[in-house]
């Protein structure tokens, strides 16, 4: 994980100025008002901007990358919610969703919340933990917008965010049945969308060099199992052999079983 780079909060339209001020205060970032102010701020690496009531992150030295935000209502999240395959999805199998068993899942490396949202849409109670303030602010904003949307508010209301380091504070999550881990790993992926997001994220967060330290507290906390998402070419987390793996085209889920899931 990198040391924190210079980030400030701004708005693109003055109608969102109060929202931008509240976000800056909540997450303890500098507030610079109109986003045009970045022209005089060579010290800033990123801006968190409120644009059309949504918080977005821009990497200032690579403007062509555009902005990223958490959108749990439209786009890829909506498509996956409607057509993703329900409980037949590999992620559902990995966490043990079956015949009436719907676990409380701690997503201890929440990121932009996509996998957590999928699990919540399948009925799971989700606790999300994210240590990077910039990422947590984006996720918090995306969840707040989703809670106002009639199509997904029931799902979003089943997701609670904790801003903390999972390595030190995993036990803040109240008795999860399953702990889900998806630590940052160098991506070979070349698609434009992943490239854009990963370039912004890896420059901000760096690789999770301490990711191996997540497995022991996860195994100690999870009632039934720990699920680790890995690129297909990556070694197991902490070089610990899983109980089983679910292999996909580019990734796999390594599953570490503490005890069998009850037959409901």
TrEMBL record:
Keyword S-adenosyl-L-methionine: yes
Transmembrane segments: none
Single GO term (MF): rRNA (guanine-N2-)-methyltransferase activity
Subcellular location: Cytoplasm
EC class name: transferase
CC terms in the record's Gene Ontology section: cytoplasm
Catalyzed reactions: guanosine(1516) in 16S rRNA + S-adenosyl-L-methionine = N(2)-methylguanosine(1516) in 16S rRNA + S-adenosyl-L-homocysteine + H(+)
Binding site for S-adenosyl-L-methionine: 114-115, 130-131, 165-166, 182
Statement: the UniProt record of this protein carries the keyword Heme: no
Keyword terms of this UniProt record: Cytoplasm, Methyltransferase, rRNA processing, S-adenosyl-L-methionine, Transferase
InterPro entries (UniProt xref): 16SrRNA_methylTrfase_J (IPR007536), SAM-dependent_MTases_sf (IPR029063)
Enzyme Commission number(s): 2.1.1.242
A UniProt-annotated Pfam family: SAM_MT
CDD domains for this protein: AdoMet_MTases
Chief place where the protein resides: cytoplasm
Highest taxon of the lineage: Bacteria
Task performed by this protein: Specifically methylates the guanosine in position 1516 of 16S rRNA.
Family per record: Belongs to the methyltransferase superfamily. RsmJ family.
Name of this chain's protein: Ribosomal RNA small subunit methyltransferase J
Lineage, highest ranks first: Bacteria, Pseudomonadati, Pseudomonadota, Gammaproteobacteria, Alteromonadales
């Amino acid at each position: 994980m990198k040391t924190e780079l210079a980030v400030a909060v701004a708005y693109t339209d003055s109608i969102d100025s109060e929202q931008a001020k509240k976000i800056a205060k909540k997450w303890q970032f500098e507030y610079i008002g109109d986003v045009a102010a970045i022209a005089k701020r060579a010290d800033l690496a990123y801006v968190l901007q409120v644009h059309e009531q949504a918080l977005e992150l821009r990497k200032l030295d690579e403007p062509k990358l555009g902005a990223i935000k958490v959108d749990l209502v439209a786009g890829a999240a909506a498509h996956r919610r409607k057509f993703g395959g329900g409980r037949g999805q590999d992620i559902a199998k990995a966490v043990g969703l079956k015949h009436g068993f719907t676990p409380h899942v701690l997503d201890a490396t929440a990121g932009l919340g996509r996998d957590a949202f999928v699990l919540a849409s399948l009925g799971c109670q989700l606790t999300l933990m994210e240590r990077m303030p910039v990422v947590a602010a984006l996720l918090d904003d995306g969840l707040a917008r989703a809670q106002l949307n009639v199509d997904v508010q029931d799902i979003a209301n089943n997701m609670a965010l904790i801003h903390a380091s999972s390595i030190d504070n995993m036990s803040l999550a109240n008795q999860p049945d399953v702990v889900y881990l998806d630590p940052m790993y160098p991506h070979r992926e070349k698609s434009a969308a992943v490239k854009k997001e990963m370039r912004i994220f890896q420059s901000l967060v760096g690789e999770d060099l301490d990711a191996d330290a997540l497995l022991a507290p996860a195994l100690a906390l999870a009632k039934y199992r720990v699920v680790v998402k890995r690129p297909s070419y990556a070694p197991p987390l902490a070089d610990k052999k899983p109980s089983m793996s679910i292999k996909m085209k580019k990734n796999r889920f390594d599953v570490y079983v503490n005890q069998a899931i009850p037959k409901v």
